Amino acid sequence: MSDALTLPAEARERAGKGASRALRREGRVPAVIYGGKEEPTTIHIEGKELMRQLMTGHFMNSIVMVEIGGDKVRTIPKDVAFHPVTDRPIHADFLRLSKDSKIEVAIPVVFINEEASPGLKKGGVLNIVRHELELVCEADKIPSEIEIDVTGKEVGDSLHISEVSLPEGSTSAITDRDYTIATLVAPSALKKAEGDTTEEGEEAEGEEAAAAEGEASAE
User: Fold this and answer.
1) Between 36 and which of 28, 96, 102, 108 could a Cys-Cys bridge form, CB atoms 3.0 to 4.6 Å apart?
2) Which GO terms describe its biological process (predicted)?
3) Does residue 133 contact residue 107 with C-beta atoms inside 8 Å?
């Protein structure tokens, strides 16, 4: 599970575009906490601290304890909006969580035991179709990543969601199909070599046929 993060925040006294612009000029990011059958809570966060936590790479899949005036609110980030030119965060949304909450999250995949794949040993290439899995997880059991074992996989094999051992408290959010996560394909160099061999064979056959026709005409 991803470690819980702590994010200091302050309550917003005023709402509206003007107040939000003023906060941004001070290096703060307007934000809101909603859900949990409670009224939304408007807050603002230090922009540099939010950016630092975003740079960890797992912020969007982590439990974030938002500290407001000595109180801690258990949340998970749902959306961060960025400025189109500067790429700085300009607004953030957080979902309030209870211990029995279940939420949909996108979890990155990591492929393991590549040295135990005959196909990869022969020069095959792992073509990743999905870099993340859409899962429904219990709020206190959100995995930081999902490991997918490629032991025994040959060129031409595919890896589907049904083959993945999901951790306790997690299920696939997509249930109507057994979707593909990755395929093991032949390297492009090998494909090209095979294609060149085929073309040479076809050219040779064409030359032999032309020669045979020439001999028949001469007779």
Assistant:
1) 96
2) translation
3) yes
- Which tokens go with 37? 């059958």
DSSP state of 116: G
**Whole-prediction pTM value?**
0.67
Bridge partner list, 82: 89
Span 155-175, pLDDT tens digits? 999 999 999 999 999 999 999
Q: SS3 string of 102-137?
A: EEEEEEEEEEECHHHCHHHHCCCEEEECCCEEEEEE
Residue 69 · residue 11 · CB < 8 Å? yes
d(CA 161, CA 82) in angstroms, rounded, equals 32
Residue 105 near residue 76 (C-beta atoms within 8 A): yes
Alpha-carbon dihedral sign for residues 174, 175, 177, 181: positive
Q: What is the largest CA-CA distance in the chain?
A: 104
**CATH number of this structure's domain 103-186:** 2.170.120.20
